[in-house]
Predict the 3D structure of the following.
Amino acid sequence: MIFTLRHRVAVASTCMHDKANEHSPMSPSSYSISTCSCCPPYDHFYCRHLAHRRRGRAPSPHMAWCPPDMHRPAPVTKSQSMEHKYVELPKKRHLNKSERAILFQMLPYATAAEAEAGLGRALTHAEAAWLGYSATVPDHLLYCHNVAILLLLYTIAPLPLALLELRARRAGPGEPLFSLQRLKLQPRACLSPAAILRCYLDTARVLLLTVGTLSLVSYPAVRAVGIRTGLPLPSPGEVAAQIAVYLLVEDYLGYWIHRLLHTRWGYDHIHRVHHEFTAPVGYAAPYAHWAEVLILGVPAFTGPAIVPCHMTTLWLWFVLRHLEAIDIHSGFNFPFNPTKLIPFYGGAEHHDYHHRVGGQSQSNFSSVFTFCDYLYGTDKGYKHHKASLAKS
């Protein structure tokens, strides 16, 4: 309403305390143009007396919005005597930061002083930086940052692994980097530069179309589950606990979705695209059918829906989940990988066996941890494979 310059309205020309006009409330002769002289310029259409007149009901003295002696209509000129006219409202004005925050569902604090007064303490450096950035950005745009973060991360994070892949492909027995061949889980399978570039371009296009479109339409769900953007920021302990819950929920649900995708119909129509790379590389982590990208987004978002978090925690969760996917698709078994310190973490060796077997694989469906494969007996083929390698 505050952005409207002109409104076509038909309102009563008499006040509830003016008995000069005793026609029916719906009678044309009882209508002309008037405004409530006691209400603010932007609010006079909400005057209860005039609203009752517009709806065709006689106003009640008990529902008067303003004092009786002030509730007088504005003078009506001869040019305004027609039954319907346009009422000129004050010109549009610029909103201040507080009004923009209310209008666009943003942070309730416009300045650091207001935030410190509301929190009762001084802002941390992180909170001051977050306030300075997000105070003028609508929440739905903050949520759409996920698309830019995902594309940037997908472009940069797998790049060192791709360079190692290409270097190992050209390394010979007499070269110092020949040891890279020993670190590769499938030394005889090395991708060409053209194959890696095709993987990157195809995946980036699918991510942009699926994740980008989903981010534009899914913000109401994000807001409904309670993802917040205000202050204070969560503590490190709170973030760590929430990320741990998200990992467990995503791993369990992702395990069963992965098994469903390995049914005959699911593999032939959807999941076979991801298994085109029998010897995966970092860029092949999100390489999949567009339907699989959307399906796997369900377990990734279920955790935040169960345990709502701050928007920054949601960003961090998606970053960590994508880095984990790149790690298990790296194709290398680095001896000093810090993820080896995480209990029950599968890693690249665990998932690489799943890709090596391909569509016939009935092992290693877990994406993060190994306990689901252990509990449901889907790690027997992998154990037999490791035992045979130990004997040779």
DSSP finds 16 helices and four strands in the chain. The longest strand covers residues 6-9. The chain has three domains: 6-88, 97-134, 139-391. The longest helix spans residues 236-261.
